[in-house]
Automatic annotation (TrEMBL):
Protein name: Phosphate-specific outer membrane porin OprP/OprO
InterPro entries noted in UniProt: Porin_dom_sf (IPR023614), Porin_O/P (IPR010870)
Biological classification of the source: Bacteria, Pseudomonadati, Pseudomonadota, Gammaproteobacteria, Lysobacterales
Keyword terms: Signal
One Pfam family linked to the record: Porin_O_P
Range of residues in the leader sequence: 1-26
């Protein structure tokens, strides 16, 4: 569902109009069914992007004369249940993306939230940012490594053992409930994650963790690509579809430190894609990336900690809301190959894959108003480069002859202004 500018403005005005009512609770109690306390939650997000394109045309809907994208980003509906006993369950669906979210059941041993067994579809043991709540993301777009290398939700079973300050977990999984075509990473696999918070108390938290995932590629194909930190835009770094692939192996490091209203967070990921039949020097493709970010709650609220991820507080003053400012540096490298020319005048052939490199800076402001509303404004500055041979992509400087041969490394340095309106309960 596409939203026009006028539709988004009307939606914003309608939301503001409802704010004269008292603040609602974060979830709606439904009933107690079979000794299970059932609640209903929801998340609706509308995004707006204004592009200052450089080389690639960023508009997701093609060369329509616009300089931006305006669309509903998420429309999540979630039922949750507590009980009977130490059992918890969840069933979620995203009506915008037409896909299932968390659909699982969990048994907590002794009521300990960090010692449990879980079966169904859930977020896999990868990426501190992905495991955190979507409604409380620090920036509109998640980091490049999160969106590119992250597995997201898969069907499987997980066991976690730990306490308030540490845990180790292992997961076995297969595909996602909602089918997607190849080359999405839907093969079966396994993963582990461990974390430790040696400092955790009085508004002061220090967390370190690591994860590893090993899974089969789907249809013996893999593809790694990234958008310029704008969820609705076209991707500007891309390996293309790599055939003759066997397994993906991703290693991640994560850490954050929070002291009162300040938080510094960073992650590093490296992915290796095993390939076969390409000769001794081209059997593994390797890519990596990282980000580091800082966030300050100007209005003084302190961050929390739960199950190995930071938590965002409610505003101290609901009527005035909580204001945040943030800065993030993000980098990803999808190059692992070289150019080969059979003769000095022949067109080059890529050995391996040259997906490109991208560095980005994001400056953001967030406003949490009362208990159910959030407004975000980000400015993203991108510096990228990618080898382009004969391409079928559409470019801002050449929208008509978009199949011409470049045979060169092309720089692409767009700037993007992003806004998000969010309502959740």
């Amino acid at each position: 569902m596409n939203l026009t500018r006028s539709t988004l403005v009307l939606a914003l005005l309608g939301a503001i109009g409802t704010l004269a009512a008292p603040a609602a609770h974060a979830q709606v109690a439904i009933d107690v069914i079979a000794d299970s306390e059932v609640t209903f939650e929801g998340l609706v997000q509308a995004d707006m992007y204004w592009y200052d394109a450089d080389f690639a045309l960023l508009n997701a809907d093609g060369p329509d004369g616009r300089d931006g994208d305006y669309e509903m980003r998420r429309a999540e509906l979630v039922l949750k249940g507590k009980g009977p006993g130490n059992i918890e369950w969840v069933m979620g669906y995203d009506a915008k993306a037409d896909k299932w979210l968390d659909v699982n059941a969990k048994y907590k041993f002794g009521g300990n939230g960090n010692h449990f067994v879980q079966v169904g579809q859930y977020k896999q043991l990868m990426s501190l940012e992905e495991l955190s709540s979507t409604k409380n993301n620090d920036f509109i777009a998640k980091a490049s490594i999160t969106n590119t290398f992250g597995l997201g939700r898969r069907l499987g079973g997980m066991y976690q053992y730990g306490d308030n300050n540490w845990a180790i977990a292992a997961s076995m999984y297969t595909r996602e409930l909602t089918e997607h075509p190849a080359p999405t990473p839907h093969g079966p696999g396994w993963g582990v994650r461990g974390y430790w918070a040696p400092i955790n108390g009085n508004g002061n938290i220090f967390h370190v963790g690591a994860s590893y995932n090993d899974y089969d590629t789907f249809g013996d194909a893999a593809q790694w690509r990234a958008r310029p930190l704008a969820d609705l835009s076209n991707r500007i770094v891309d390996t293309g579809t790599m055939r003759n692939t066997d397994r993906n192996k991703t290693f991640g490091l994560e850490s954050f430190w929070a002291h009162g209203p300040f938080k510094v967070q960073g992650e590093y990921m490296k992915t290796e894609t095993e390939r076969y039949g390409l000769g001794p020097n081209s059997e593994t493709f390797s890519a990596d990336g990282a980000y580091i970010s800082g966030l300050w709650n100007i209005t003084g609220e302190s961050f929390g900690y739960k199950n190995g991820v930071p938590t965002t507080p409610l505003p101290n003053n609901p009527a005035g809301g909580m204001w945040q400012v943030g800065l993030r540096y993000d980098t990803i490298d999808l190059n692992d190959g070289a150019l080969f020319r059979a003769t000095p005048t022949a067109n080059p052939t890529v050995l391996g894959a040259l997906g490109g490199e991208m560095d980005s800076w994001t400056v953001g402001v967030n406003w949490y108003w009362r208990s159910n509303f959030k407004f975000m404004l980000d400015y993203v500055m991108v510096d990228s480069s990618k080898y382009i041979g004969r391409t079928s992509a559409t470019y801002a400087e050449d929208p008509i002859n978009n199949n011409r041969t470049f045979n060169a490394v092309v720089d692409d340095n767009p700037n993007i202004l992003e806004a998000r309106l969010q309502f959740y309960w």
